[in-house]
Amino acid sequence: MSHITSTHYQGASFFNLVNKLRETEVSIVVNPETNLYLQGRYANINIPRGMARVNYLLKHGVNVSLGSDNVSDVVYPLGTFNMIRVMEICRTAEWNCPLKVVTENGFRTINVNPPVIKEGEKAQLVVLRHDGSSLHYMPLLVLNGRNYVINNIKPEIGTVD
Predict the structure, then answer these.
(1) What is the pLDDT of residues 50-65, one digit of tens each?
(2) What is the dihedral of CA 74, 78, 84, 90, to 10 degrees?
(3) Does residue 148 surpass a pLDDT of 70?
(4) Where does the Amidohydrolase domain start and stop, copy by copy (predicted)?
(5) Distance between alpha carbon 114 and the CA centroid of its chain, in Å?
(6) Residue spans of beta strands (DSSP E) within the chain
(7) Architecture of the 1-113 domain
């Protein structure tokens, strides 16, 4: 489940929602860049939306991770695939997200065991190739010894030797 900006519910309504999320093991992916950019946009009145209650959800057993669903598009033109930037925004916003929302919780969200840093284990890491102008459309993901890369919007898959 993504964004969940409707978690401005008060009292029992929100408590019941959190219980259902925990009991059904639904993971939440919050998008701080987009949510802060769009919050109350074009509203003539104060609309109660914005950011999910990350720390409350975590405290009550709901898995929360970070995401960014808008990359250089009309809705959010400032997106860059840079999850470090997303984490910085999350840490400076009212959430003060713990590091685990961009590390181990992301793996839980997609039902993958988190990597272990241990001698003899395969490395699982993200490498961003930077040409000096921008990071747009150039992520490289290494997962279970395989490369997953998008270069100029063309996916390529290979192995790490």
Answers:
(1) 678 888 899 999 999 9
(2) -80
(3) no
(4) 8-133
(5) 15
(6) 28-30, 64-66, 125-128, 139-143, 146-151, 154-159
(7) Alpha-Beta Barrel (3.20)
Residues near 137 by beta carbon (within 8 Å), at least 6 away in sequence: 71, 81, 150, 151, 152, 153
- Residue 27, SS3 per DSSP: coil
Bridge-based pairing of strands 154-159 and 64-66 is unpaired
CA-based R_g, the chain, Å = 18
Largest distance between two CA atoms of the chain: 59
Cβ-Cβ contacts under 8 Å for 125 (sequence gap 6 or more): 115, 142
Domain ranges of the chain: 1-113, 115-161
For residue 2, give Cα distances in angstroms to 10, 47, 88, 131, 158.
Answer: 20, 19, 19, 31, 30
Dist. CA 69–CA 75, nearest whole Å:
10
Predicted structure pTM score: 0.66
Q: Can you tell me the distance from the alpha carbon of 5 to that of 150, in angstroms, rounded to the nearest whole number?
A: 30
Single-letter residue type at 13: S
